[in-house]
Amino acid sequence: MNRFLFLLFLWLVWLPHTSWAWDAPITLTEQIALPHHMPREVAFEALRTRLWLHGLEKSADSIKQKRLLALSVPPHLHLALAHSALATTITEEWRNEDTITLRATLSLRDPKGNMQEERLALVNTLVEDAKQTLLALDSVWPSGHIYTEPKALPPAKKKPLTQNWLKLANTLKALWLTQQAITPLQTNWLTQASAQENLEEANRLHPKDPRILTLLGEACLLHNNPQKALDYTSLALSIAPQTHRARYIRALGYWKMHQLGLAENDLSLAIDACTPKKAAPSYYRERGTVRMILGKTESMCADFHTACQMGDCEGLKYARSKNLCPHDP
To answer: Exposed/middle/buried for 116, CB within 10 Å: 0-12, 13-18, 19+?
Structure first.
């Protein structure tokens, strides 16, 4: 019995230090015949999306085997977690008039630094939309199937509605570009300035998507273009008023343009739009900082304390360095 407990202790000590990465990157290769009369770009986007989803599933399986489920990620977010853990490169192997061959190179990283709930939820919606769009394309595939088994769709739906091909392919490409733009880094930002061009292309292909518009506004903000950030996030909010991330990014844009009253209002609305106690600590910290500039000391301290209770004590430490907020509320 003592030996068993000793071995269990060693296993528990050793587990956190195991490598989450594969020993080496792995590759997946898939090929499809180019359907008659179908534009090549349509088949390319369909195969790339199928290969990307396959890579996510393989990554999720690997994460399960490494007992990462101890981190209590809900099952419906496993593919989103795999996205945070996976570096994926997909290239065309060779060009042929009759076939398309793509190769995916997959590198699995430790995803524990990418557990931000907002990031996982966003990626999850992109993955689900990619699945549904691929299913829709499958239903109009000229012959056979690109995504499902033949029995998965009724024969009556197998009509070559060619007018839908390019629209569905554009949606798939937009979703691919958007998920690529989401940074895997452990920061409060969901994207980076360098993603602006790809997000603009995604917005052109799939306009009026509040997720794309919000990320595009964030990229513009990071590119030091607050006016464009305001334009994109305002459009996102006109489509989906409860998009709290868009309000947060727009607030930071107002702040950069020295419109502090509007910034404070948007930060308050962003916090209110989140479910109770689900707002990111940065929302409170940023509102506290705006209130510091506005001279609203009492409410500033309340925000800094809330942020600190959620794990972000940067604002409170700064305030106390200025002899503000000396006591807990």
So the answer is: middle
